[in-house]
């Protein structure tokens, strides 16, 4: 190729590479933010199971780094942060009229299973499932394995004994959120994945790269939904923007507010509450909405600071998992929220 053609070609190639790499912001870029990115990166590098950390504020990517061999193209299993996505789909379904209301009894959708159930079980509502106050025996923790190997996940959940009164104490149960996925399918006539693509991920440009299904083909309502960290960030931004995206109101502002308001007190300790599929955690003197997933899959939405933080991490069981989660919370509180609060 003649030299006069090679030089322009190389310049164009260099510009293309710069454009591709532009979203990755490192600790040396300190010109347009109020955070100590060097301290943030130092803290992040001390977390051996961390996969990604993204900080987005005032419409700009302040920090985006990947660790332990991960990169921006790789999806993360959101684990129980999938529950926040299901909550969004329920909000959309209610706004569209596919689901009548939060007060609608779950028994309306499962007459084949609950026809002869006790009145207390037939009284469980959509809202009770969203707030983890269904009163059913949990299918998480010690019961998770038996549930996951059962032939019919929906029936298994609904046939659990009542151990509480609907609308009273919080009983964390992945089965409750899975029922919501099954309800979306029965209410809309299409799969939960297709419903998400039509009304949530499609309009925002998010991409679900994988989502497991139960033996009947219902998409897993409380686990195993995979997205890239940048797509998780978009999901957080949707809530930060009050449900609006690109001039369209995908979620009502009221739904966002109610999702991020405490409806149940967590039995896991003080300073933790539960909204509609979102945890609310006391951090830096604030109550911060968090989409939480096992092992450190986290989306923090901090409206007072116009801020979204995403973290993903190794979710495999093993030594250091609890310390890893605590370390991510400490990083976010100490190096991001506290400095912004001080200012």
Give the beta-strand count: 13
Computed over alpha carbons, the radius of gyration is 21 Å
Sequence of secondary-structure elements: HHEEEHHHHHHHHEEHEEHEEEEEEH
Global shape? globular
Give the full name of the CATH homologous superfamily of the largest domain.
DD-peptidase/beta-lactamase superfamily
The level-1 CATH class of the largest domain? Alpha Beta
Could you write a compact summary of the structure shown?
The protein has 343 residues and is α+β, with helices and mostly antiparallel strands.
Task: Describe this protein's structure.
With 343 residues, this protein is of the alpha+beta class. The chain has two domains: 25-73 and 229-343, 3-Layer(aba) Sandwich (Beta-lactamase), CATH 3.40.710.10; 75-227, Beta-lactamase, CATH 3.40.710.10. It has helices at residues 3-21, 37-45, 82-96, 111-114, 119-122, 126-130, 144-148, 153-158, 174-188, 192-204, 229-240, 253-259, 321-342, and strands spanning 50-57, 60-66, 76-77, 210-211, 225-227, 244-245, 248-249, 264-265, 272-274, 279-283, 286-293, 297-302, 307-313. The strands form three sheets. The chain has an eight-stranded antiparallel beta sheet with strand order 2-1-13-12-11-10-9-8, sandwiched between helices. Strands 3-5-4 form a three-stranded antiparallel beta sheet. A hairpin with a 6-residue loop joins strand 8 (264-265) and strand 9 (272-274). The longest helix is centred in the C-terminal third of the chain and has 22 residues, at 321-342. It holds the Pfam family Beta-lactamase. InterPro entries: Beta-lactam-related (IPR001466), Beta-lactam/transpept-like (IPR012338), Diverse_Enzym_Activities (IPR050789).
């Amino acid at each position: 190729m003649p030299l006069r053609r090679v030089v322009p070609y190389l310049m164009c190639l260099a510009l293309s590479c710069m454009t591709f790499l532009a979203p990755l912001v490192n600790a040396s870029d300190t010109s347009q933010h109020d955070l100590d990115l060097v301290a943030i990166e130092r803290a992040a590098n001390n977390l051996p199971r961390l996969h990604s950390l993204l900080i987005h504020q005032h419409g700009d990517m302040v920090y985006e780094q990947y660790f332990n061999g991960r990169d921006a193209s790789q999806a993360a299993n959101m684990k129980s942060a999938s529950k926040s996505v299901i909550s969004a789909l329920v909000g959309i379904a209610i706004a569209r009229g596919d689901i009548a209301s939060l007060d609608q009894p779950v028994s309306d959708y499962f007459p084949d299973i609950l026809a002869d159930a006790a009145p207390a079980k037939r009284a469980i509502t959509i809202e009770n499932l969203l707030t983890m106050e269904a009163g059913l025996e949990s299918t998480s923790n010690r019961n998770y394995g038996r549930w996951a190997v059962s032939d019919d996940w929906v029936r298994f959940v609904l046939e659990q004994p009542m151990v509480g009164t609907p609308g009273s104490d919080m009983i964390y149960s992945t089965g409750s959120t899975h029922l919501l996925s099954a309800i979306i399918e029965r209410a809309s006539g299409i799969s939960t994945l297709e419903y998400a693509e039509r009304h949530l991920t499609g309009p925002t440009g998010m991409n679900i790269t994988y989502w497991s299904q139960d033996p009947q083909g219902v998409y897993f309502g409380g686990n195993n939904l995979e997205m890239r960290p940048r797509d998780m960030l978009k999901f957080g931004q949707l809530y930060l923007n009050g449900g609006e995206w690109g001039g369209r109101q995908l979620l009502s502002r009221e739904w966002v507010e109610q999702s991020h308001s405490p409806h149940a007190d967590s039995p896991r300790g003080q300073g933790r509450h539960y909204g509609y599929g979102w945890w609310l955690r006391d951090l830096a003197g604030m109550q911060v909405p968090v989409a939480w997933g096992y092992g450190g899959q986290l989306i923090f939405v901090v409206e007072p600071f116009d801020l979204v933080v995403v973290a993903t991490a190794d979710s495999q069981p093993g030594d250091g998992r609890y310390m890893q989660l605590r370390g991510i919370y400490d990083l976010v509180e100490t190096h991001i929220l506290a400095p912004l609060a001080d200012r």
